[in-house]
Protein backbone atom coordinates (compact mmCIF):
# COMPACT_ATOMS: atom_id res chain seq x y z
CA UNK A 1 0.00 0.00 0.00
CA UNK A 2 1.60 3.26 -1.14
CA UNK A 3 1.96 6.19 1.25
CA UNK A 4 2.81 9.82 0.61
CA UNK A 5 4.63 11.93 3.20
CA UNK A 6 3.89 15.59 2.75
CA UNK A 7 4.51 18.76 4.77
CA UNK A 8 7.88 17.42 5.93
CA UNK A 9 11.45 18.68 5.96
CA UNK A 10 13.39 15.89 4.27
CA UNK A 11 16.88 15.22 5.62
CA UNK A 12 19.31 14.10 2.93
CA UNK A 13 23.07 13.58 3.40
CA UNK A 14 23.68 16.97 1.78
CA UNK A 15 20.83 19.30 2.75
CA UNK A 16 17.31 19.64 4.13
CA UNK A 17 14.68 19.63 1.37
CA UNK A 18 11.65 21.89 1.83
CA UNK A 19 8.47 21.60 -0.21
CA UNK A 20 9.11 18.01 -1.27
CA UNK A 21 7.20 14.81 -0.64
CA UNK A 22 8.24 11.16 -0.39
CA UNK A 23 6.27 8.12 -1.58
CA UNK A 24 6.89 4.66 -0.18
CA UNK A 25 5.42 1.40 -1.44
CA UNK A 26 6.05 -2.25 -0.53
CA UNK A 27 8.73 -1.26 1.94
CA UNK A 28 10.75 0.87 -0.47
CA UNK A 29 11.11 4.56 -1.30
CA UNK A 30 9.62 4.93 -4.77
CA UNK A 31 9.59 8.68 -5.41
CA UNK A 32 10.89 11.99 -4.10
CA UNK A 33 9.60 15.11 -5.81
CA UNK A 34 8.18 18.57 -5.19
CA UNK A 35 4.80 18.45 -3.50
CA UNK A 36 3.28 20.15 -6.53
CA UNK A 37 4.52 17.41 -8.86
CA UNK A 38 3.92 14.52 -6.50
CA UNK A 39 0.34 15.53 -5.60
CA UNK A 40 -0.97 14.08 -8.84
CA UNK A 41 0.33 10.58 -8.08
CA UNK A 42 -2.19 8.01 -6.92
CA UNK A 43 -1.45 6.79 -3.38
CA UNK A 44 -3.35 4.78 -0.80
CA UNK A 45 -2.62 7.07 2.14
CA UNK A 46 -1.35 10.59 2.75
CA UNK A 47 0.65 11.29 5.92
CA UNK A 48 0.80 14.93 7.00
CA UNK A 49 4.17 15.38 8.72
CA UNK A 50 3.02 18.67 10.26
CA UNK A 51 6.33 20.33 9.47
CA UNK A 52 8.47 17.70 11.20
CA UNK A 53 11.75 16.39 9.87
CA UNK A 54 11.59 13.19 7.82
CA UNK A 55 14.93 11.48 8.43
CA UNK A 56 16.54 8.20 7.46
CA UNK A 57 16.46 5.72 10.33
CA UNK A 58 19.51 5.58 12.54
CA UNK A 59 21.93 2.64 12.34
CA UNK A 60 23.92 1.69 15.47
CA UNK A 61 26.87 -0.53 14.55
CA UNK A 62 28.35 -0.62 18.08
CA UNK A 63 26.09 -1.43 21.03
CA UNK A 64 26.17 -4.16 23.66
CA UNK A 65 22.62 -3.94 24.94
CA UNK A 66 20.05 -1.88 26.81
CA UNK A 67 16.94 -2.25 28.98
CA UNK A 68 18.72 -4.68 31.28
CA UNK A 69 19.77 -7.02 28.46
CA UNK A 70 23.08 -7.77 26.71
CA UNK A 71 23.87 -9.72 23.53
CA UNK A 72 26.10 -11.94 25.66
CA UNK A 73 22.92 -13.20 27.35
CA UNK A 74 22.50 -15.19 24.12
CA UNK A 75 18.70 -15.34 24.32
CA UNK A 76 15.88 -14.41 21.99
CA UNK A 77 14.26 -12.43 24.82
CA UNK A 78 17.37 -10.23 25.10
CA UNK A 79 17.36 -9.33 21.41
CA UNK A 80 13.59 -8.74 21.41
CA UNK A 81 13.93 -6.16 24.18
CA UNK A 82 17.09 -4.57 22.80
CA UNK A 83 15.39 -4.10 19.42
CA UNK A 84 12.28 -2.50 20.90
CA UNK A 85 14.37 0.03 22.83
CA UNK A 86 16.36 0.88 19.72
CA UNK A 87 13.16 1.50 17.78
CA UNK A 88 11.87 4.01 20.35
CA UNK A 89 15.07 5.98 19.87
CA UNK A 90 14.96 6.07 16.08
CA UNK A 91 17.36 3.19 15.42
CA UNK A 92 15.83 1.19 12.58
CA UNK A 93 18.74 -1.26 12.20
CA UNK A 94 21.83 -2.22 14.16
CA UNK A 95 24.63 -4.70 14.76
CA UNK A 96 24.79 -6.74 17.94
CA UNK A 97 28.20 -6.31 19.58
CA UNK A 98 29.85 -9.40 21.05
CA UNK A 99 32.65 -8.50 23.46
CA UNK A 100 35.76 -10.26 24.79
CA UNK A 101 34.76 -13.45 26.59
CA UNK A 102 35.53 -17.17 26.46
CA UNK A 103 35.39 -18.66 22.98
CA UNK A 104 32.36 -20.69 24.06
CA UNK A 105 30.43 -17.60 25.18
CA UNK A 106 31.39 -15.66 22.05
CA UNK A 107 30.20 -18.49 19.81
CA UNK A 108 26.93 -18.86 21.75
CA UNK A 109 26.20 -15.15 21.44
CA UNK A 110 27.12 -15.13 17.74
CA UNK A 111 24.91 -18.16 17.07
CA UNK A 112 22.00 -16.50 18.86
CA UNK A 113 22.38 -13.33 16.77
CA UNK A 114 22.84 -15.15 13.48
CA UNK A 115 19.76 -17.34 14.04
CA UNK A 116 17.53 -14.49 15.28
CA UNK A 117 14.44 -13.76 13.17
CA UNK A 118 13.57 -10.06 13.06
CA UNK A 119 10.10 -9.15 14.24
CA UNK A 120 7.67 -6.38 13.37
CA UNK A 121 7.54 -3.27 15.58
CA UNK A 122 11.24 -3.64 16.31
CA UNK A 123 14.55 -2.38 15.00
CA UNK A 124 16.14 -4.80 12.55
CA UNK A 125 19.23 -6.75 13.62
CA UNK A 126 21.65 -6.82 10.67
CA UNK A 127 24.42 -8.95 12.12
CA UNK A 128 27.40 -9.17 14.44
CA UNK A 129 30.15 -6.78 15.48
CA UNK A 130 32.89 -8.82 17.20
CA UNK A 131 34.72 -6.51 19.61
CA UNK A 132 37.61 -8.67 20.80
CA UNK A 133 39.23 -10.80 22.05
CA UNK A 134 42.30 -9.89 19.96
CA UNK A 135 43.31 -6.77 21.85
CA UNK A 136 46.19 -5.16 23.76
CA UNK A 137 45.98 -5.80 27.50
CA UNK A 138 47.41 -2.34 28.14
CA UNK A 139 44.41 -0.74 26.41
CA UNK A 140 41.75 -3.27 27.41
CA UNK A 141 39.32 -0.75 28.91
CA UNK A 142 36.30 -2.80 30.01
CA UNK A 143 37.32 -5.89 28.01
CA UNK A 144 37.97 -8.72 30.53
CA UNK A 145 41.73 -9.28 30.63
CA UNK A 146 41.59 -13.02 31.28
CA UNK A 147 40.02 -13.64 27.85
CA UNK A 148 42.26 -11.39 25.73
CA UNK A 149 44.25 -13.38 23.15
CA UNK A 150 46.43 -13.10 20.08
CA UNK A 151 44.60 -13.44 16.75
CA UNK A 152 43.48 -17.01 16.15
CA UNK A 153 42.55 -17.94 12.58
CA UNK A 154 41.02 -21.29 13.55
CA UNK A 155 38.63 -19.55 15.93
CA UNK A 156 37.70 -16.92 13.33
CA UNK A 157 36.90 -19.68 10.83
CA UNK A 158 34.73 -21.42 13.40
CA UNK A 159 32.96 -18.13 14.14
CA UNK A 160 32.41 -17.48 10.43
CA UNK A 161 30.98 -20.99 10.01
CA UNK A 162 28.50 -20.38 12.84
CA UNK A 163 27.64 -16.82 11.79
CA UNK A 164 27.35 -17.30 8.05
CA UNK A 165 26.99 -13.91 6.37
CA UNK A 166 26.00 -12.25 9.67
CA UNK A 167 29.54 -11.43 10.77
CA UNK A 168 29.73 -7.82 9.58
CA UNK A 169 32.58 -6.21 11.56
CA UNK A 170 35.55 -7.30 13.67
CA UNK A 171 37.55 -4.98 15.94
CA UNK A 172 41.20 -5.96 16.50
CA UNK A 173 44.47 -4.44 17.75
CA UNK A 174 46.58 -4.21 14.56
CA UNK A 175 49.93 -4.50 16.37
CA UNK A 176 49.16 -7.98 17.77
CA UNK A 177 51.08 -10.95 16.36
CA UNK A 178 49.03 -12.41 13.51
CA UNK A 179 46.76 -9.36 13.24
CA UNK A 180 47.78 -8.35 9.73
CA UNK A 181 47.03 -11.83 8.40
CA UNK A 182 43.65 -11.73 10.13
CA UNK A 183 42.85 -8.26 8.77
CA UNK A 184 43.66 -9.31 5.20
CA UNK A 185 41.60 -12.48 5.57
CA UNK A 186 38.55 -10.66 6.91
CA UNK A 187 38.78 -7.99 4.20
CA UNK A 188 38.95 -10.71 1.54
CA UNK A 189 35.71 -12.10 2.99
CA UNK A 190 33.96 -8.69 2.82
CA UNK A 191 33.96 -8.24 6.61
CA UNK A 192 34.67 -4.72 7.86
CA UNK A 193 37.77 -4.51 10.04
CA UNK A 194 38.18 -1.94 12.80
CA UNK A 195 41.14 -1.14 15.05
CA UNK A 196 40.42 -0.95 18.76
CA UNK A 197 41.74 -1.44 22.30
CA UNK A 198 45.19 -1.05 20.87
CA UNK A 199 48.57 0.41 21.81
CA UNK A 200 49.61 0.60 18.17
CA UNK A 201 52.07 3.22 17.05
CA UNK A 202 51.26 5.43 14.07
CA UNK A 203 53.30 3.12 11.82
CA UNK A 204 51.57 -0.01 13.13
CA UNK A 205 48.14 1.58 12.68
CA UNK A 206 49.00 2.64 9.12
CA UNK A 207 50.15 -0.91 8.39
CA UNK A 208 46.79 -2.17 9.62
CA UNK A 209 45.01 0.30 7.35
CA UNK A 210 47.14 -0.83 4.40
CA UNK A 211 46.01 -4.41 5.07
CA UNK A 212 42.32 -3.49 5.20
CA UNK A 213 41.32 -1.63 8.38
CA UNK A 214 38.62 0.94 7.56
CA UNK A 215 37.18 1.88 10.99
CA UNK A 216 38.62 3.25 14.22
CA UNK A 217 36.45 1.90 17.04
CA UNK A 218 35.29 4.56 19.56
CA UNK A 219 37.97 7.09 18.57
CA UNK A 220 40.29 8.31 21.37
CA UNK A 221 38.99 5.64 23.78
CA UNK A 222 40.85 2.35 24.26
CA UNK A 223 43.89 3.41 22.20
CA UNK A 224 47.33 4.94 22.55
CA UNK A 225 47.10 8.62 23.46
CA UNK A 226 47.98 11.12 20.75
CA UNK A 227 51.41 12.70 21.03
CA UNK A 228 53.05 15.18 18.69
CA UNK A 229 56.00 12.77 18.40
CA UNK A 230 53.97 9.53 18.30
CA UNK A 231 50.46 10.16 16.94
CA UNK A 232 49.39 6.52 17.26
CA UNK A 233 45.99 5.30 16.05
CA UNK A 234 44.41 8.69 16.68
CA UNK A 235 46.80 10.40 14.28
CA UNK A 236 46.53 7.62 11.70
CA UNK A 237 42.73 7.54 11.81
CA UNK A 238 42.26 11.30 11.64
CA UNK A 239 44.62 11.80 8.71
CA UNK A 240 43.80 8.77 6.53
CA UNK A 241 40.76 9.23 4.29
CA UNK A 242 40.19 5.46 4.13
CA UNK A 243 39.17 5.32 7.79
CA UNK A 244 35.78 5.96 9.39
CA UNK A 245 35.95 7.12 13.01
CA UNK A 246 33.36 5.97 15.55
CA UNK A 247 32.47 8.56 18.20
CA UNK A 248 30.54 8.08 21.43
CA UNK A 249 28.82 11.47 21.57
CA UNK A 250 27.62 11.31 25.18
CA UNK A 251 29.86 14.18 26.39
CA UNK A 252 31.31 11.72 28.93
CA UNK A 253 33.64 9.64 26.78
CA UNK A 254 34.78 12.69 24.81
CA UNK A 255 35.24 16.38 25.48
CA UNK A 256 33.35 18.58 23.05
CA UNK A 257 36.65 19.91 21.68
CA UNK A 258 37.88 16.36 20.95
CA UNK A 259 34.71 15.69 18.97
CA UNK A 260 35.09 18.99 17.12
CA UNK A 261 38.66 18.08 16.15
CA UNK A 262 37.46 14.78 14.69
CA UNK A 263 34.61 16.48 12.83
CA UNK A 264 36.94 19.11 11.39
CA UNK A 265 39.51 16.52 10.34
CA UNK A 266 37.16 13.84 8.97
CA UNK A 267 33.96 15.71 8.18
CA UNK A 268 30.65 14.01 8.96
CA UNK A 269 31.20 11.85 5.86
CA UNK A 270 33.74 9.78 7.81
CA UNK A 271 32.41 10.08 11.38
CA UNK A 272 30.07 7.40 12.74
CA UNK A 273 27.91 8.10 15.77
CA UNK A 274 27.71 4.99 17.96
CA UNK A 275 26.19 4.39 21.37
CA UNK A 276 28.51 1.65 22.72
CA UNK A 277 25.57 1.19 25.08
CA UNK A 278 25.55 -1.51 27.76
CA UNK A 279 22.59 -3.08 29.53
CA UNK A 280 21.97 -0.04 31.76
CA UNK A 281 20.90 2.11 28.79
CA UNK A 282 17.29 3.18 29.29
CA UNK A 283 17.39 2.38 33.01
CA UNK A 284 18.27 4.31 36.17
CA UNK A 285 21.63 4.60 37.92
CA UNK A 286 22.69 1.49 39.82
CA UNK A 287 24.85 -1.65 39.74
CA UNK A 288 25.00 -3.61 36.47
CA UNK A 289 27.26 -6.08 34.67
CA UNK A 290 29.36 -6.09 31.50
CA UNK A 291 31.42 -9.09 30.44
CA UNK A 292 31.10 -10.60 33.90
CA UNK A 293 32.41 -7.43 35.54
CA UNK A 294 30.59 -5.20 38.01
CA UNK A 295 29.65 -1.83 36.52
CA UNK A 296 28.42 1.13 38.56
CA UNK A 297 26.28 3.66 36.71
CA UNK A 298 26.23 7.10 38.33
CA UNK A 299 24.75 10.17 36.62
CA UNK A 300 24.61 8.15 33.41
CA UNK A 301 28.32 7.24 33.38
CA UNK A 302 29.10 3.49 33.50
CA UNK A 303 32.38 2.58 35.20
CA UNK A 304 34.28 -0.43 36.50
CA UNK A 305 35.57 -0.40 40.06
CA UNK A 306 38.95 0.88 38.79
CA UNK A 307 37.23 3.91 37.23
CA UNK A 308 37.46 2.75 33.61
CA UNK A 309 34.47 3.60 31.48
CA UNK A 310 32.48 0.45 30.67
CA UNK A 311 30.36 1.27 27.65
CA UNK A 312 27.69 3.94 27.90
CA UNK A 313 24.03 4.57 28.60
CA UNK A 314 23.71 6.56 25.36
CA UNK A 315 21.28 6.10 22.47
CA UNK A 316 21.66 7.47 18.95
CA UNK A 317 18.79 9.92 19.27
CA UNK A 318 20.68 11.63 22.08
CA UNK A 319 23.98 11.37 20.22
CA UNK A 320 22.54 13.25 17.24
CA UNK A 321 20.87 15.76 19.57
CA UNK A 322 24.20 16.41 21.33
CA UNK A 323 25.94 17.06 18.02
CA UNK A 324 23.32 19.57 16.96
CA UNK A 325 22.87 21.31 20.32
CA UNK A 326 26.40 21.38 21.74
CA UNK A 327 28.66 21.12 18.66
CA UNK A 328 26.53 23.23 16.31
CA UNK A 329 26.56 20.53 13.64
CA UNK A 330 23.85 21.08 10.98
CA UNK A 331 21.00 18.60 11.42
CA UNK A 332 21.55 16.89 8.07
CA UNK A 333 25.24 16.36 8.84
CA UNK A 334 24.57 15.04 12.35
CA UNK A 335 21.98 12.63 10.98
CA UNK A 336 24.44 11.42 8.36
CA UNK A 337 26.83 10.26 11.10
CA UNK A 338 24.05 8.04 12.47
CA UNK A 339 22.67 6.77 9.15
CA UNK A 340 24.61 6.85 5.88
CA UNK A 341 28.10 6.78 7.40
CA UNK A 342 27.51 3.58 9.44
CA UNK A 343 25.69 2.02 6.47
CA UNK A 344 28.69 2.73 4.23
CA UNK A 345 31.13 1.42 6.82
CA UNK A 346 29.50 -2.03 6.89
CA UNK A 347 28.50 -2.15 3.21
CA UNK A 348 24.76 -1.72 3.82
CA UNK A 349 24.41 1.59 1.96
CA UNK A 350 22.90 0.03 -1.18
CA UNK A 351 19.61 -0.36 0.71
CA UNK A 352 19.93 1.72 3.88
CA UNK A 353 21.23 4.94 5.36
CA UNK A 354 19.59 7.70 3.32
CA UNK A 355 16.31 8.82 1.77
CA UNK A 356 16.84 7.83 -1.84
CA UNK A 357 14.64 6.19 -4.44
CA UNK A 358 15.00 2.41 -4.31
CA UNK A 359 16.24 2.23 -0.73
CA UNK A 360 14.40 0.64 2.19
CA UNK A 361 11.65 2.77 3.72
CA UNK A 362 13.41 3.03 7.10
CA UNK A 363 12.41 6.50 8.27
CA UNK A 364 11.86 8.69 11.34
CA UNK A 365 9.63 11.68 12.00
CA UNK A 366 10.89 14.08 14.66
CA UNK A 367 10.65 17.74 15.69
CA UNK A 368 13.33 20.41 16.18
CA UNK A 369 14.30 18.93 19.57
CA UNK A 370 14.59 15.44 18.04
CA UNK A 371 11.48 14.26 19.86
CA UNK A 372 10.46 11.25 17.79
CA UNK A 373 6.79 10.82 16.88
CA UNK A 374 6.96 7.92 14.42
CA UNK A 375 9.44 5.30 13.26
CA UNK A 376 8.97 3.44 9.98
CA UNK A 377 10.84 0.18 9.32
CA UNK A 378 10.41 -1.34 5.89
CA UNK A 379 7.32 0.82 5.42
CA UNK A 380 5.71 -0.34 8.68
CA UNK A 381 4.79 2.44 11.15
CA UNK A 382 5.35 2.53 14.88
CA UNK A 383 3.99 5.54 16.74
CA UNK A 384 6.16 6.74 19.63
CA UNK A 385 3.75 7.99 22.32
CA UNK A 386 6.15 10.14 24.36
CA UNK A 387 9.42 11.99 23.77
CA UNK A 388 12.49 9.92 24.68
CA UNK A 389 15.13 12.01 26.43
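^ Assign residues to that structure.
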Amino acid sequence: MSKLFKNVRIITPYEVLHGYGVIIDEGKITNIASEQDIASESVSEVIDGKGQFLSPGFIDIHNHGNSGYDFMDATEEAIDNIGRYHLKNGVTSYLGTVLTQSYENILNAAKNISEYKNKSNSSQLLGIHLEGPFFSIGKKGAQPEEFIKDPDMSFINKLMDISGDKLKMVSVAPEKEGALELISYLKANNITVAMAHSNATYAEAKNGIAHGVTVATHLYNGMRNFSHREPGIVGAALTDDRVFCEMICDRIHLHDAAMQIALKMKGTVKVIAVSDAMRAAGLSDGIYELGGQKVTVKEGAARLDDGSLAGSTLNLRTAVYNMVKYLNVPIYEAVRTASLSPAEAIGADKNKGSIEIGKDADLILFDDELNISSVIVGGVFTEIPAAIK
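Residues 76-88 form the longest helix (13 residues).
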